[in-house]
Structure formats: structure tokens, C-alpha cells
């Protein structure tokens, strides 16, 4: 959560040999082995593995739909928990490194949004915002999930400068500070409890007079002397000073009265929106809208379509876990293609022992 670094993720900032001109009609002529949608850690890791497996992947990086080019990590600054960076690394720099690595092995990038897909045909067809139609034998979906936002004044300006949606990622920066957690469900209680490891005080702001969280989570939160509650309250503005957050304006949902509350950080815990609208009615999703895969593989319910990263994971949602599933998706796609498109998942290396044999 330091100064935002300026790292270009536009095609101009990418290695020339890896950047296909957007809308290049030649790309529409061939049937590609695999196309990856999404340029966060999941998509870029999938690209590294797919490129090194000679699948000549096309990666559609996205522009606006589902988050920025490069994904959620481009919205943050210090990343201190990605292995291999002893002194931490800036989020955009980490993404640029992954992108360069994928480019080095021949990944071709298209900086556009995908606007529609036809996954029922063979090959599968994707259409981008410029109208480019691409065909592929296999597809890797790495479109991520967006944290739900409050949509109040100050939120955009102070995002990454006090405002966050990930206590695991940013809690460490709030040692001995006062932070606010917005939400009333299990995730909000988890975030609040985690933040008490660092913060001197955590105020949970919830719009109702009762929490939605499970009884056990409520009991734990109520028993923690560092956690306070502001019930029947919504955050109507986030304020800052010198580019850093310094408090919020709370509105009482019953009386409408407003009051200010000084705080150094605010963590949103009001859910995520998985970027799956493209696949509505085609791919299976769970009750929260995340893509369902045939664990331990990354295969969706449509043969040749694999999913990785936050779009299929509402439990961990970390860069390293997204990268891990990106690796798995590329290996699944490669083995599916090598098997003539007839298998849906990577077979276990060793058959599980049969009980009693
Ligand atoms: C503020 C913040 C700080 C964080 N800090 C950390 C941290 O310190 N450490 C950590 O491990 N994790 C951190 N995370 C979490 C981490 O960013 C995510 O877990 C990770 O980015 C998920 O990777 P992903 O590739 O699955 O998805 P994303 O990074 O969300 O990428 C999704 C990609 O899909 C693209 N896309 C979506 N829809 C379309 C479409 N229709 N067409 C084309 N492209 C599309 C987007 O443009 C984007 O490129 C943080 C998250 C946030 C919000």
C-alpha cells in the first residue's frame, strides 16, 4: 500500500514479438490449440505452461469487463506474500513479469474484452469487442472475480491507500491502527478476526441490527475485545488526507443521522462477483455464481473448457493460488488435447489403493 507504480500493461509496453495487433484477421483463420481469457496470475500462469507445452496460446487480456488488464493485482501496490520475492514486489510489476515470461515462450496477446462465446460447437468460438472471431479446440477461463464495492465518494480515490478488499493481503500494513470492516456475514467476521492480529481496534460496520454470520463466528467476534460493532450503519463516504484514508462518514439506517468515524483502513467484506456472465446457461456455476470444476482437475462441465483462478475459487482468492490453478488448467488442457479431446481431467499419477486389496 505504498505509492502506485507506473507500469504499462498496454500492448506498447509488451515485448513486440509477442503482441499480435488487435483485430488481426490472420488470427481468425486458424483453429488455435488453446485460448486463455484473462490476464491475472491465473491466465498468465496458464499461458506460461501452455506456451512451454507448444500449444501456441492466444491470451485475451481484457480491458474493462471483469477488471483491468492484468487483473486485480494491478490495483494494489506491495505484494509481500508471493513466493520468490523476499523484499516484496509491486502488484503491477509482478503481473508485468508474468506477462513477459508468457511472451518469452510465444504467447500472443490480444488486448480486448471477449463479448460472446459459443462453447457448444467444435471448435469453440469467441468474439471480441472489435468483432474479431477466434476459434480454438480448448479454452481456459481465468476471468477472476471482482470485490463488491460500496460505490460511495472516496472509495475509488482511496482504493489501495487505506481501502482494500483483502485482509490476508493488506492486514499486515495496519499494525496498531484502527480499521473498519464492512459486512455482516462469515467473511466479514473472518476478516475482522484476522485483522485483530495487527490492528489495535477493528470496527465492524453492518447495515442491520443483527449479523448474518454463523452463530460460532458471531460468538468469536463478540468475545474478541479488539472488535467493536456499529449496527444499523452504512458507510456513505470515505475520507482522506494527503492521499491516505483518515475516516468515514456513517449514516444510521434507522434515523438517517450521520457521524464521522476516524479510521486508517477500511476492508470491504460484502462479497465478490465472479466474472461469469459470458458463460451463463452454458457452464455450471455454484449458488454464488462461481464456475464449478471437476476437482481435482480444472475441467468444467463442457469438454475442453477449463477454469482457473478466482473465477472458480471463492475460498482462497490469492495470487499464488490463482497461479497454481492456472498451471493445472494448462496441464489439463494439454493432456485433454493430447488425448484427442476425449478425457476431461488429468488422470491421477498413481491409482489410489483399493481398500481391502
Ligand atoms: C486490493 C487487492 C489487493 C490484493 N493483494 C493481494 C496480495 O497482496 N497477495 C495476493 O496473493 N493476492 C492479493 N489479492 C488477490 C489477487 O489479486 C487475486 O486473488 C488474483 O488477482 C486472482 O487472479 P485471477 O487471475 O484469478 O483473476 P484476476 O486477477 O481478477 O484477473 C482476471 C482477468 O480476467 C480478465 N477478464 C475478465 N472478464 C473478461 C472478458 N470478458 N474478456 C477478457 N478478459 C476478461 C480481466 O481483465 C483480468 O485480466 C488482492 C486483491 C485485491 C482486490
Give the total of domains: 2
Ions, cofactors and other bound molecules:
flavin-adenine dinucleotide
CATH architecture of the largest domain: 3-Layer(bba) Sandwich
Number of helices: 7
- Level-1 CATH class name of the largest domain: Alpha Beta
Secondary structure layout:
Blueprint: H1 26-29, E1 31-37, H2 41-52, E2 58-60, E3 78-79, E4 89-90, H3 91-104, E5 108-110, E6 114-118, E7 124-128, E8 133-141, E9 145-147, E10 163-164, H4 167-170, E11 178-182, H5 186-195, E12 201-205, H6 215-223, E13 227-230, E14 233-241, E15 244-252, E16 258-262, E17 265-268, E18 272-274, E19 305-307, H7 319-338
Helix pairs in contact: 2-3, 2-7, 5-6
Give a written overview of the molecule.
This protein is α/β, with parallel strands linked by helices. It has helices at residues 26-29, 41-52, 91-104, 167-170, 186-195, 215-223, 319-338; strands at residues 31-37, 58-60, 78-79, 89-90, 108-110, 114-118, 124-128, 133-141, 145-147, 163-164, 178-182, 201-205, 227-230, 233-241, 244-252, 258-262, 265-268, 272-274, 305-307. The chain has two domains: 25-146 and 272-337, FAD/NAD(P)-binding domain; 149-268, FAD/NAD(P)-binding domain (3-Layer(bba) Sandwich), CATH 3.50.50. The chain has seven helices and 19 strands. Strands 1, 2, 5, 6, 7, 8 and 19 form a seven-stranded mixed sheet that branches. It has a five-stranded parallel sheet with strand order 10-17-11-12-13. It has a three-stranded antiparallel sheet with strand order 14-15-16, with no helix packed on it. Strand 14 (233-241) and strand 15 form a beta hairpin. The relative contact order is 0.16. The protein binds flavin-adenine dinucleotide (FAD). Flavin-adenine dinucleotide is lined by residues 37-43, 60-62, 65-73, 75-76, 79, 81-82, 113-114, 142-144, 147, 164-166, 169, 275, 278, 309-310, 317-320, 322.
Amino acid at each position: 500500500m505504498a505509492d502506485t507504480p507506473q507500469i504499462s500493461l498496454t500492448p506498447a509496453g509488451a515485448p513486440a514479438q509477442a503482441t499480435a495487433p488487435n483485430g488481426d484477421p490472420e488470427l481468425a483463420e486458424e483453429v488455435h490449440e488453446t485460448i486463455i481469457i484473462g490476464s491475472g496470475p491465473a491466465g498468465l500462469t496458464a499461458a506460461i505452461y501452455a506456451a512451454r507445452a507448444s500449444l501456441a496460446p492466444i491470451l485475451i487480456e481484457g480491458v474493462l469487463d471483469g477488471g483491468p488488464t492484468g487483473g486485480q493485482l494491478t490495483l494494489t501496490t506491495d505484494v509481500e506474500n508471493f513466493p520468490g520475492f523476499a523484499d516484496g514486489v509491486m502488484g503491477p510489476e509482478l503481473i508485468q513479469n508474468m506477462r513477459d515470461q508468457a511472451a518469452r515462450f510465444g504467447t500472443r496477446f490480444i488486448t480486448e474484452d471477449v463479448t460472446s462465446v459459443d462453447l457448444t460447437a467444435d471448435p469453440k468460438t469467441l468474439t471480441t469487442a472489435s468483432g474479431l472471431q477466434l476459434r480454438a479446440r480448448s479454452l481456459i477461463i481465468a476471468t477472476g472475480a471482482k470485490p463488491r464495492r460500496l460505490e460511495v465518494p472516496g472509495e475509488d480515490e482511496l482504493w489501495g491507500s487505506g481501502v482494500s478488499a483483502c485482509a490476508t493481503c493488506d492486514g499486515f500494513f495496519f499494525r496498531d491502527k484502527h480499521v473498519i470492516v464492512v459486512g455482516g456475514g462469515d467473511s466479514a467476521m473472518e476478516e475482522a478476526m484476522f485483522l485483530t492480529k495487527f490492528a489495535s481496534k477493528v470496527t465492524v460496520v453492518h447495515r442491520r441490527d443483527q449479523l448474518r454470520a454463523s452463530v460460532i463466528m458471531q460468538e468469536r467476534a463478540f468475545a474478541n475485545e479488539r472488535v467493536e460493532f456499529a449496527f444499523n450503519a452504512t458507510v456513505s463516504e470515505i475520507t482522506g488526507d494527503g492521499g491516505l484514508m483518515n475516516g468515514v462518514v456513517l449514516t444510521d439506517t434507522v434515523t438517517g443521522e450521520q457521524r464521522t468515524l476516524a479510521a486508517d483502513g477500511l476492508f470491504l467484506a460484502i462479497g465478490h462477483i465472479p466474472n461469469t456472465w459470458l458463460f451463463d446457461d452454458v457452464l455450471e456455476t455454484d449458488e454464488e455464481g462461481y464456475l464449478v470444476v471437476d476437482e481435482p482437475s480444472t475441467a468444467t462441465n463442457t469438454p475442453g473448457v477449463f477454469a482457473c483462478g478466482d473465477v472458480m475459487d471463492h475460498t482462497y482468492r490469492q495470487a499464488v493460488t490463482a497461479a497454481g490453478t492456472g498451471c493445472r488448467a494448462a496441464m489439463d488442457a494439454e493432456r485433454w488435447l493430447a488425448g484427442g479431446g476425449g478425457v476431461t481431467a488429468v488422470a491421477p499419477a498413481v491409482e489410489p489403493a483399493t481398500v481391502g486389496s
